[in-house]
Specification:
The complex is a heterodimer. Chain A contains 13 helices and 15 strands. By secondary structure, chain A is of the alpha/beta class. Chain A has two domains: about 240 residues, Rossmann fold (3-Layer(aba) Sandwich), CATH 3.40.50.970; about 130 residues, Rossmann fold, CATH 3.40.50.920. A seven-stranded mixed β-sheet of chain A has the order 3-2-4-5-7-6-12, with helices on both faces. Chain A has a six-stranded mixed β-sheet with strand order 9-11-10-13-14-15, sandwiched between helices. By secondary structure, chain B is an alpha/beta fold. The chains are: A alpha/beta, B alpha/beta. Chain B: Pfam families: POR (PF01558).
Chain lengths: ~400, ~180
């Protein structure tokens, strides 16, 4: 089979993925480190390589508003953002999910001010876990491209009709070049049917959209929204299976277990750091330690079942968080911990906070986390939330 | 895995060279590669870094390069004792210079190769853009990519008018360093 592989950045891979999905409307405001994605898309539209309309907007708030308007008349829409821009969109994000507009967004994960930082962490998107969007985190540029295609299938599914955010780590993925296979357009066209929505604003079938609700029906709308996001779990699995059958690549649905079969101690992470954890797992396995990685792909819907299944089999679970919910713990940890609490056996747990504002997470640091989890097993270490590799003295 | 660190100034094409090497290794060489700049804002003239990782299998490690096997210096005025940090013992250092002697103490324990890339670039391009000359030198010294793959990567990445001159530079730099080694 002839393959088309090119050496491109994560940002460019995302743009190629979007192009293959033939969106009707793209509205986005450039922000580092997402910029290259929207630059490439605007160039593709300008050169006539894609048919969509690229709408120039003065802000992210307008970008998401344009996408909602276009989606309401049945258009396939795309936007992209990062950090401060994503937060500026926040009001519209709730609107889009409540309105059941299946917009797809690329978010280049970046720290949130203050202190001002253009570098990567997960504090932007994780602070918006409750906005009703499906959230996936990818590990490399190929997964970024492929998930754009899967995202439209998932978001636009009639039982889901929920917007979806594809997250890729700022710089580590957005600005790193690697070999990426560009799928065949005809195959993508076959895989991704035209967008059809029952919530279409039209003269032929007039209906009330984006309306107000009263206390006597608001809960029912929110119940339905929750059901739709839960339902997406089945759709995510179905889409990934079909994707593999069509394109030969699979991403293991909600989570990917790496060398967890007989593992005693497992680290849980999201995004690109999973790659580095794999390398450390391989090294420690060679040294005889039974360690593994649980790569969480979807944070919403949350892979509760998968985490529980793992918790039943292992003795210790550590969670790497490139974020902190001040005054408590990392958000990934909170979610993982909630699932672990539903199994009967005791699992030693710890939260490792780091990689904030673009700081590198090294193999030595990850190795140290595994050793700390082992220390927890013989009771020589408490369960705790730890900021690792701090450059300041603490009294802890 | 082999790790390469590129030193240049903004506008000298260090990041382009890191990508060309990635293209040669992966698209034309059947290996796996990652190429990335030092993350953050870029300014013309300011010292910049770029990196290439090359391996026979998929590169999962997304952490920063900590122990370079090869260091390429496109502008010798950037060299300070700090540059020895993060360089593996026995690494190969390629410097755009007429004379490597002043740098031997900085890179003690490493192999140093000098090439007057500026003269080569002036001769063929008519401009002191030294990235492709140093790229050719690295290909010769490292054997990470073949000369054919290196030339192919330039044709993949550059406009035809620019590509042919740069292919010539790569070939000449390659030949010069092969003779030295």
């Amino acid at each position: 089979m002839k393959t088309n592989k090119i050496f491109i950045s994560g940002d460019e891979a995302a743009a190629y993925g979007v192009k293959l999905c033939r969106p009707h409307v793209i509205a986005a405001y450039p922000i580092t480190p997402q910029t290259i994605t929207v630059e490439r898309l605007s160039e593709m539209v300008e050169k006539g390589e894609m048919d969509g309309e690229y709408m120039h907007v003065e802000s992210e708030h307008s970008a998401i508003s344009v996408c909602m308007g276009a989606s309401s008349v049945g258009a396939r829409t795309f936007t992209a953002s990062s950090s401060q821009g994503l937060l500026y969109m926040a009001e519209g994000l709730h609107y889009a999910s409540g309105g059941r507009y299946p917009i797809v967004m690329m978010n280049a994960n970046r720290s949130v001010a203050l202190p001002w930082s253009i570098y990567g962490d997960h504090r932007d998107s994780l602070s918006l876990l409750d906005c009703g969007w499906i959230q996936v985190y990818v590990e490399d540029a190929q997964e970024a491209l492929d998930m754009m295609i899967q995202a439209y299938r998932i978001a636009e599914h009639k039982d889901v009709l929920t917007p979806m955010m594809v997250n890729l780590d700022g710089f580590i993925l957005t600005h790193t070049y690697e070999l990426v296979e560009i799928p065949d357009q005809q195959k993508v066209d076959e895989f991704l049917p035209a967008f059809v929505t029952p919530n279409k604003m039209s003269f032929e079938e007039p209906k009330n959209l984006a309306f107000s609700s009263k206390p006597d029906d608001n809960t029912e709308f929110k119940y339905q929204q929750n059901q739709a996001v839960l339902k997406s779990i089945d759709v995510i699995k179905e889409v990934d299976q079909e994707f593999e059958a069509t394109f030969g690549r699979k991403y293991h649905d909600m989570v990917e277990e790496y060398r967890c079969e007989d593992a005693e101690v497992v680290l849980v992470a999201i995004g690109s750091v999973c790659g580095t954890v794999r390398v450390v797992v391989d090294k420690l396995r060679e040294e005889g330690m039974k360690v593994g990685l649980l790569k969480i792909r979807f944070m919403r819907p949350f892979p509760e079942q998968e985490v529980k299944d793992l918790a039943k089999r292992v003795k210790a679970i550590g969670v790497i968080d490139k974020d902190i919910s001040f005054g408590y713990e990392g958000t990934v940890y909170t979610n993982v911990n909630s699932a672990i609490s539903k199994v009967e056996n005791y699992v030693y747990k710890s939260n490792f906070i780091g990689g904030l504002g673009g700081r590198d997470i090294t193999k030595a640091e990850i190795e140290d986390m595994f050793h700390k989890l082992y220390a927890g097993l013989d009771k020589s270490r408490e369960e705790k939330v730890e900021f690792f590799s701090l450059n300041v003295e603490t009294n802890e | 895995m082999k790790e390469i660190r590129w030193h240049g100034r903004g506008g000298q094409g260090g990041f382009t060279a890191s990508r060309l090497l990635g293209i040669a290794a992966s698209v034309h060489g059947g290996k796996h590669a990652l190429a990335f700049p030092s993350f953050g804002p870029e300014r013309r003239g300011a010292p910049v870094l770029a990196f290439t990782k090359i391996d026979d299998t998929k590169i999962r490690d997304r952490s920063e390069v900590q122990e370079s096997d090869f260091v390429v210096v496109m502008d010798e005025t950037l060299i300070t004792p700090e540059m020895r940090k993060g360089v593996r013992e026995g690494a190969c250092i390629l410097i755009n210079t007429e004379n490597t002697a002043p740098y031997e103490s900085v890179f003690e324990g490493c192999k140093i190769i000098g090439l007057d890339a500026t003269a080569l670039a002036m001769e063929i391009l008519g401009r002191p853009i030294t990235n492709t000359a140093m790229y050719g030198a690295l290909a010769a010294a490292s054997g990470l990519v073949s000369l054919d793959a290196a030339m192919a990567s330039i044709r993949t990445e550059m406009k035809p008018s620019l590509a042919e001159k740069n292919v010539k530079i790569v070939a000449k730099a390659y030949e010069t360093v092969k003779t030295l080694a």
